[in-house]
Amino acid sequence: MNALNIAEHMASLGLQAREASARMASATAAQKSRALSAMAALLRASVQALQADNARDIERATAAGLAAPMVDRLKLTPKIIETLAIGCEQLAVMPDIIGEVIGMKQQPSGIRVGQMRVPLGVFGMVFESRPNVTIEAASLSIKSGNACILRGGSEAIESNKALARLVQQALVQAGLPPEAVQLVQTTDREAVGRLIAMPEYVDVIIPRGGKGLIERISREAKVPVIKHLDGNCHVYVDDPCEMDMAVAVADNAKTQKYSPCNAIEGLLVARAVAPDFLPRIGAIFAAKGVEMRCDPEARAILAKVKGGDVKQATEQDWSEEYLAAIISVKVVAGIDEAIAHINRYSSHHTDAIVTRDHMHAQRFLREVDSASVMVNASTRFADGFEYGLGAEIGISTDKFHARGPVGIEGLTSLKWIVLGNGEVRT
Questions:
Q1: Stated pTM of the model
Q2: Bridge-partner residues for 126, per DSSP?
Q3: Structure confidence at residue 100 (pLDDT)
Q4: Relative orientation angle of helices 157-173 and 132-143, to the nearest 10 degrees
């Protein structure tokens, strides 16, 4: 496509999305549930076909030298497809919150004032790598009564096209407009520039990808953006703690999968428990090939671990999102220093404490300034599916409108409604 054709294409998508959003806003709960159930059935019936399209993306990405964690994000395994189908089914049976009225109160004038939950309208989604985002975004858009325009990365174009076709089939089966979920068919970067600068058609942009993509969109967008830039998450091992639990949580939070934004990049350990805890977790990290970048105190303890890859941390390491088998490790005096470190260096995404001290747990929950804060649980749970949202559109580290995993409510707004009986203002 040339520049003129891209402009025309994006304007056409925008107009169709705006028209479809009006129909989606008035769609019944039963229609939306039928569409989601149909999506689940179509996904399960199309596993082999989807994997064939996905294999072409993986082959092309590997040949282009894409980093291994990025290639991993591209994969549509049968397990991932089944998880997507389950997410659609979860959303299908969840209550429909559109039209819900809250806070209705009688005023001295006689009028009753409250708020009604309504769809945002049209959102644009720009994402990289993970093709499962196509289904997550589409399913949440349908459930929340919105329309969406999706622009996935060029590395997953075949997978995204195949998934988008299934979504549109499901919409038609439910009697809903297929234009309610549209995929940008070109991989030209100019399409992104157009999508984020169409306030007449698009109400909000949700970027999901690397820091460079999100910074560009935040800088150039002419419509509001729901975003997070980094996933520099932490586990703090407190004094006192249950040692076996601390080892299991820290291990899972780092090594269950290296590429997600909710995997930890930093491990903080209270000085009193460091001599017992660090050799145990260090041995696990050494066995799994995790490089440990440490402050001098942690390094002195971990240097004794057989086969451990232990290095001196730099100041930059405390802020780094590795998305790889690397972790920063620091010994801290206690909870005060841990909270201060997290609030200074974290990306305010997800941070966890492992502790047996109830007051420490409560302080951590109150004082750590992150979108998700956890006690005695792995940060890997910071996910819309795990939170019972059915799916997520992304994880927001913004403080306005939506924060943390963005599910149905994050794609809606509240408008004021007034019910009267002929009252006039005097």
A1: 0.84
A2: 151, 207
A3: 96
A4: 30
Entry field: residues in the chain: 426
Question: Structure tokens of 299?
Answer: 């390094």
Q: How buried is 373 (Cβ within 10 angstroms: 0-12 exposed, 13-18 middle, 19+ buried)?
A: buried
Cβ neighbours of 284 (radius 10 Å): 16
Our CA angle for 110, 114, 116, nearest 5°, is 145
Residues 6+ apart with CB under 8 A from 118: 25, 98, 99, 145, 412, 413, 414, 415
Is residue 155 packed enough to be buried (19+ CB in 10 Å), middle (13-18) or exposed (0-12)? buried
DSSP bridge partners of 20: none
Q: What mean pLDDT, rounded, does the chain reach?
A: 94
Whole-number Å distance between alpha carbons of 374 and 361:
9
DSSP 314: P
Q: What order do you get walking across the sheet with 309-312 strand by strand?
A: 309-312, 291-294, 326-332, 264-270, 233-237, 350-354, 372-375
Q: What is the pLDDT of residues 277-329, one digit of tens each?
A: 999 999 999 999 999 999 999 999 999 999 989 999 999 999 999 989 999 99
pLDDT number for residue 250: 98
φ/ψ of residue 236, rounded to 5: -110, 120
